[in-house]
Design goal:
The chain is α+β, with helices and mostly antiparallel strands and 845 residues long. It is built from 36 helices and 19 strands.
Length: 845
């Protein structure tokens, strides 16, 4: 996250610190440096001491080579590690997915001012390596609102969707500059990912682009290709991530027939002594590195006449003319004659570059406005962005016409239109668009107001006849709000709270539930309760969130319940919860969905109870017809509301047939220092006669808490060595024995002897005892969220969700338990087809 001085590139340190990795630096079309920051937001300081804070999202930054004029170019990217420009100054990348099952990486086009939608707090809204199971029921806008996919019906409108979903583990990303690799793959991007490098083109598609082709250039490298760059000698140099011994090898891919060429020679010689005419000729060279170097030198000399001549020369190549224009951009030289001549050109690309030039050098606003009505969507896009940068108030009619014509089906034009409106129109003017006939215009107005933080003006769109506009308005107010927003505009919070409806779409109901929680009134509780008791019971996520809202009422919360951002909400009256919810709590505690019933039982533990309630709870705990999770929930309730009655129930439950409940009862009695003999008898009886694996595992866990259990464990270890212990509890016996062996030398000696024998067993050695006795739910949690295992980072559970490693769909039907365990202990023992690695040693070592 820190940049230090680089003498090789001639720029001084100008970023002090950042919240996440600084991934890469690329020279842009305009001679500026473009920086990629990770996915967690940035907090950086420019050379002049100006601080830029863009929390919770990855971003592309831009500055001059000396570190001045530092700014955010685009945002909303998730770990956009590497990126590059094509020959026409269009910026592309492939950002990473968030390691959720079913979600994929995104191929993104990144125009100036764009927001690609990612926020870091989405990362923690599902079972993951940080929050583990505690996140399993959380709402996740990124997944639930399918923000990671290309444009689709119902998708929120406040960001630029990707062009397509893409390959796994993208990292290095380099544009073939012309003569590299002997000219092969000219005009292609080369993407390094897991095990290889592929090449493809990005071709214009109206205002945006589409991918064309896919050629696997290098395959079978075994590790992720992390970073790459084209060298002057024409080779593609790249490094691999996380190799053995932690020493990343530097590879080069070259055309073996390519000799030292003019690119290498001229770059080595430099450009400071070349004539203006020679530099002008190089603006049309087939290799971008020479074109860019000539442009830099001409800009450094402020050779406006030369750059202007090339830009206007109709006999020059298209790229030469574009570089001439970029050279003027580089030292901010506005030339009205250049603009006038290029505006008459029949070449749409030159007009697109003109539209961008106007904004980059703060040229004549009227020319940008005129280009809003151009025949080319690409020209319109750049013109709209320039109008926003120049704050051209007269551009609003043209922007609205462009947005209306695009009809919300061309996301790039919608995004460019929003950038234009943010700069061109006031919040009051945008609010008036709530009565505009075009749905697309109203959507763009909502998104523009969102970026302006105009909560009051957004309220005019909350009752729009279009579900998309109304939904975008709710999201615009709530998702962009902070504490000051609702302090200044309490009516906005109340309006969203009133949107709660059993038939309403989930995204709106989620924000409405959260808004009611922030209001904290009895009316808000009543709304949530009515929603809970009348809502279609299939809509579980909304009902769970409603229960969680009520449970959190008396406590101050820190994170927002919709998306997890830092957005505290105060505590409110617990008495109000009881008054409004008490008539419904037992109905909810009997809900057919266990997640709702569990939450209702936990919530009722905070309320006043009667003797009848305690009797009912005790009966439910001891009733075999009650679902096991609810028996646990009622027992926890009884421990709080009637601890003496819980003692009685626990003593009775010791003799029951439900292993989990019996173990809970035993632990309760041990905690209360009651009936130690009965607990010991339960443990011994279970170990001697129970056929239930879970019950026997629970009994072995209890042995750790019972004084004098060492003798029992010694006998169990001896039985294990004699082959008389069931396979499903062998691991539990060893773990219980290890816990007790620190205070019992005979037991420690027995374990040492067992270990010596176990290590010789084939094929799995001491791990053979892990073949049986596992737990499906714990295994699922480990797969999705374990910090060390990180299974879900590389493996998908469905073939359609292919990750870096092979899909595990159907693995249990293809492999035996022994083969499954072996694959975890020694992943390279048997490799799935297509994932093998060939190791070769060269003759020189």
């Amino acid at each position: 996250a820190e940049v230090r001085e680089s003498l090789a590139h001639g720029f001084a340190p100008h970023i002090g610190y950042g919240n996440h990795d600084l991934h890469s630096v690329v020279r842009g079309y305009d001679g500026k440096l473009y920086w990629s920051m990770g996915d967690r937001g940035l907090n950086v300081m420019s050379k002049e001491g100006k601080r830029w804070a863009y929390p919770n999202t990855g971003a592309i930054l831009r500055c001059n080579p000396d570190g001045s004029e530092f700014e955010v170019f685009a945002s909303g990217l998730r770990n956009c590690q590497y990126f590059d420009f094509d020959d026409f100054g269009n910026l592309f990348s492939i950002d990473h997915d968030a390691d959720f099952q079913g979600e994929m990486e995104r191929l993104v086009f990144i125009p100036e001012g764009s927001d690609s939608g990612w926020r870091n707090y989405y990362q923690y809204r599902q079972v993951n390596r940080v929050l583990r199971d505690s996140a399993k029921d959380l709402y996740n806008p990124w997944l639930s609102e399918v923000m990671w996919k290309p444009l689709h019906s119902g998708q929120p409108s406040h960001f630029l969707p990707p062009i397509e979903n893409s390959w796994n583990a993208p990292a290095s990303f380099s544009f073939q500059p012309g003569q590299a690799l002997g000219g092969k793959y000219r005009g292609h991007f080369l993407l390094g990912g897991m095990g290889g490098i592929r090449a493809f083109k990005m071709v214009p598609d109206g205002a945006t682009f589409r991918r064309e082709g896919e050629d696997m250039v290098v395959d079978g490298l075994g590790q992720q290709v992390l970073a790459s760059t084209f060298a002057p000698n024409g080779g593609l140099y790249f490094v691999l991530w996380d190799p053995q011994q932690g020493r990343p090898p530097l590879w080069v891919l070259r055309n073996p027939n390519q000799q030292r060429g003019e690119v290498e020679t001229m770059l080595a010689q430099g450009f400071g002594k070349r004539s203006l005419e020679e530099l002008a000729q190089l603006l049309g060279h087939e290799d971008r590195r020479l074109r860019a170097a000539a442009q830099d030198e001409l800009a450094a000399r402020k050779a406006a006449d030369v750059l202007k001549r090339i830009a206007l020369d109709e006999q020059a190549s298209q790229l030469a003319r574009i570089h001439g224009l970029w050279g003027l951009t580089q030292f901010k030289r506005w030339d009205a004659e250049v603009a006038g001549q290029l505006s008459k050109s029949s070449d749409d690309e030159l007009q697109a570059q003109l539209a961008r030039y106007i904004g980059d050098v703060r040229g004549e606003p009227k020319r940008a406005v005129a280009l809003l009505s151009h025949r080319s969507p690409r020209v319109k896009m750049f013109a709209a962005i320039s109008c926003g940068k120049l704050n051209v108030t007269s551009a609003t009619p043209g922007l609205l016409a462009m947005i209306q014509e695009a009809a919300n089906t061309i996301p790039v034009l919608r995004e460019a239109g929003v950038v234009g409106l943010v700069g061109a129109a006031s919040a009051a003017e945008l609010e008036k668009l709530s009565s505009h006939a075009s749905e697309a215009v109203r959507i763009a107005a909502v998104v523009a107001l969102r970026r302006l933080g105009a909560a009051r003006e957004l309220m005019s769109f909350l009752n729009d006849s279009s579900p998309q506009v109304m939904s975008d308005a709710v999201l615009a107010i709530y998702d962009a709000a902070d504490a000051q927003t609702f302090e200044k505009h309490p009516q906005a919070l109340a309006a969203i709270a009133q949107k709660l409806a059993p038939s309403g779409p989930a995204p709106i109901n989620m924000r409405a539930l959260a808004a009611n929680r922030r209001l904290g009134t009895r009316e808000a509780i009543s709304r949530i309760t009515a929603f809970l008791t009348t809502l279609n019971q299939q809509r579980q996520t909304e009902r769970i969130m409603a229960m969680d809202m009520l449970a959190s009422w008396p406590d101050q919360s820190t994170l927002d319940p919709v998306d997890g951002r830092y957005f505290p909400a105060p505590a409110f009256s617990a008495d109000d919860i009881e008054a409004e919810l008490a008539p419904h709590i037992m109905t909810l505690a009997s809900d057919r969905h266990i997640e709702i019933a569990e939450r209702a039982i936990a919530l009722s533990a905070r309320m006043k109870v009667t003797a009848e309630d305690i009797t009912r709870a005790a009966a439910a705990i001891l009733d075999d017809a009650t679902a096991i999770p609810l028996r646990f929930a009622w027992f926890r309730w009884l421990q709080k509301q009637g601890p003496e009655r819980a003692d009685e129930v626990a003593a009775t439950a010791l003799t029951g047939t439900k292993p989990g409940l019996s173990m809970t009862a035993a632990n309760h009695l041990l905690d209360r220092k009651l009936k130690a003999n009965e607990v010991r008898e339960y443990v011994m009886r279970t170990l001697d006669s129970s056929q239930d694996t879970r019950q026997r595992q629970g009994a072995l866990e209890l042995l750790k808490r019972i004084p004098g259990s060492e003798a029992v464990l010694r006998a169990l270890v001896e039985s294990l060595r004699a082959g008389k212990v069931a396979a499903a509890i062998q691991l539990d016996v060893i773990e219980a024995a290890r816990a007790a062996s620190t205070k019992d030398k005979p037991l420690a000696d027995l374990l040492a002897g067992y270990d010596d024998v176990a290590k010789t067993q084939k094929p799995l050695g001491e791990f053979s005892i892990a073949l049986e006795g596992g737990d499906v739910e714990r295994g699922k949690s480990l797969f999705l969220g374990h910090t060390a295992a990180m299974c879900s980072k590389c493996h998908a559970l469905k073939r359609a969700d292919q990750q870096v490693g092979p899909s595990l769909e159907g693995a249990a039907t293809r492999l035996t338990p022994t083969e499954l365990l072996e694959s975890m202990l020694d992943p390279g023992a048997k490799v799935a087809p297509g994932y093998g690695i060939q190791m070769l040693e060269l003759t020189n070592g």
